[in-house]
């Protein structure tokens, strides 16, 4: 577990991002000129060009964030957190995959690249907004923008990104359901990679456990500080204290953390998301209507997230009906709606097929 990989200054990071962004667009421009005179450009070349353009746009966005952080907020150094790096890898990988899968729905990869800009911005804003609204209020202005420190609610990012992309698709007159399907497998891939970043950062941790899957984290990991506070203040929050296996209370009190394995819930979710990714690829052609595979991913995530939340102690579990976390509450509300939409969509698709037969 290594939360910080390297530390940047504005003089090194901002020019680096600008150069990489210009390089990405330059590569796309050169390839486009090289194949511009041909009668038919191969689909793979078009996809590659659009991927490089999307990468360039993403780097320009990151450069703008860096400019605001250093010049407007007075930051002197910016550490490269493993969480932030994996988050960037997750976004770029998901966008690249979406552009490659766009032709399956007769959608131009370039349109996916344009939508991806809205996805990145909306996902970051939404996930940060939900975190500060429902979990931890910001202490100052810098806390709001410090996404590199963690503190992102996945559901907030998904909700805001879906709403933003929906509006963008309608304005660009794109097929809404088919376009969402293009993003179904990339969404699962993004969660898989993003949760690896959570594991490196030590956030989104699970409770102490006697299960064989338990892992011992470094002594300075966030989870042990939290466990120690829970035990020390047992009378203030007896429900949370009761979740800790009794055999570990003495070790936590004595700070013998090398004897306290915890649930690596980050890896649980990452592996389950990877399984969902392969399931989507396997059953993609079995969908009954446009938009169904995206609903599969949302429903699948609602189920796995609900059960994983029972192992986590990093978020409040009294936000809904007195015993559920924010993510569990969203899942409880969303899952019946998702199932209902899938059933209705299937029935409607069969009725239309029978009518056209």
List keywords for this structure.
357 residues; mainly alpha; globular
How would you characterize the overall build of this protein?
The structure is a single chain. The protein contains 14 helices and two strands. With 357 residues, the chain is mainly alpha-helical. It has one domain (4-205, 264-352). It has a two-stranded antiparallel sheet. Helix 2 (43-72) packs antiparallel against helix 3 (82-101), helix 3 runs antiparallel to helix 8 and helix 8 (184-201) packs antiparallel against helix 12 (265-283). The longest helix has 31 residues, at 326-356. It is globular and about 75 Å long. The mean pLDDT is 87.
Quick structural summary:
With 357 residues, the protein is mainly α. It is built from 14 helices and two strands. The protein has a two-stranded antiparallel ribbon.
């Amino acid at each position: 577990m290594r939360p910080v990989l390297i530390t940047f200054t504005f003089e090194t990071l901002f020019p680096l991002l600008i150069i990489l962004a210009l390089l990405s667009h330059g590569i796309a421009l050169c390839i486009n000129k090289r194949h511009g005179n041909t009668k038919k450009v191969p689909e793979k070349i078009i996809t590659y060009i659009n991927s490089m353009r999307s990468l360039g746009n993403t780097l320009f966005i990151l450069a703008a964030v860096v400019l605001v952080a250093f010049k407007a907020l007075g930051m002197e150094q910016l550490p490269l957190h493993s969480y932030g790096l994996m988050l960037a890898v997750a976004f770029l990988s998901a966008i690249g995959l979406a552009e490659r899968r766009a032709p399956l729905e007769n959608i131009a990869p370039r349109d996916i690249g344009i939508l991806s800009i809205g996805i990145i911005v909306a996902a970051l804003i939404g996930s940060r907004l939900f975190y500060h609204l429902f979990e931890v209020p910001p202490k100052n202005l810098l806390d709001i923008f410090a996404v590199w420190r963690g503190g992102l609610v996945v559901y907030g990012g998904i909700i805001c990104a879906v709403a933003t992309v929906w509006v963008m698709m309608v304005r660009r007159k794109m097929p809404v359901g088919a376009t969402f399907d293009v993003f179904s497998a990339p969404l699962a891939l993004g969660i898989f990679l993003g949760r690896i970043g959570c594991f490196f950062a030590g956030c989104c941790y699970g409770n102490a456990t006697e299960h064989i899957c338990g892992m011992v984290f470094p002594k300075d990991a966030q989870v042990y500080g939290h466990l120690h506070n829970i035990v020390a203040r047992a009378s203030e929050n007896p429900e949370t204290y009761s979740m800790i296996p009794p055999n570990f209370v003495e070790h936590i009190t004595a700070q013998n953390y090398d004897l306290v394995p915890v649930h690596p819930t980050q890896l649980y979710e990452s592996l389950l998301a990877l399984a969902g990714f392969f399931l989507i690829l396997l059953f993609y052609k079995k969908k009954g209507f446009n938009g169904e595979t995206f609903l599969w991913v949302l429903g699948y995530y609602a189920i796995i997230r609900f059960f994983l939340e029972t192992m986590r102690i990093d978020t409040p579990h009294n936000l809904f009906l007195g015993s559920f976390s924010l993510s569990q509450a969203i899942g409880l509300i969303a899952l019946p709606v998702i199932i209902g939409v899938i059933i209705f969509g299937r029935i409607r698709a069969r009725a239309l097929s029978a009518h056209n037969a």
